[in-house]
Amino acid sequence: MPRMPRVLLATLAASTMLALAACSSPAPATPAPTQTAAPAPSATEVPVEPLVLLPDGTAQENLAYFDSIAAAVLAANPSAGGESFINALVVGGFNKADMEVGFDRTSVDLAADSVPWAVRFNGECLLGQFGPSSGGYQSAVTAMLSTGSCLIGATRAIDW
């Protein structure tokens, strides 16, 4: 067998030992995740203003407020009907005379799959709808119909 130079032999021995050490040593421990506290709000952060009715605004500008009222109704009563939404909108400052609401019950006295309601607002419509067939609460801003109303079809008299 030919003689290997000492440097080459030492290099091979060291490489072999490192390779064996890598195979037999345990994997390095990963540090445990640390929990950090949420940063405190800074003095420069602007507080979020509560939503309010903007009587001179557009329907789109009032949609978030309209939605917040519906969210409060549903938080208080997850199976709320049309009257609850109308009453809450009146308390929120919307004009009851400008509202429309669908029926909570069908003509054969079953719970409606979805109940729509609307507010005519500065020439547009704020529409809300809630029920299992609508996928929960939905809302939109639309143009008024040529009839001057917002909802299509028969609606319930708001006589309370």
From TrEMBL:
Annotated DUF6993 domain ranges read 72-154
Task: Look up the domain of life of the source.
Answer: Bacteria
* InterPro entries, per the entry: DUF6993
- The positions making up the signal sequence are 1-29
Q: Does the keyword Signal apply?
A: yes
**Per the record's keyword annotation, is Signal included, yes or no?**
yes
Please give the name of this protein: DUF6993 domain-containing protein
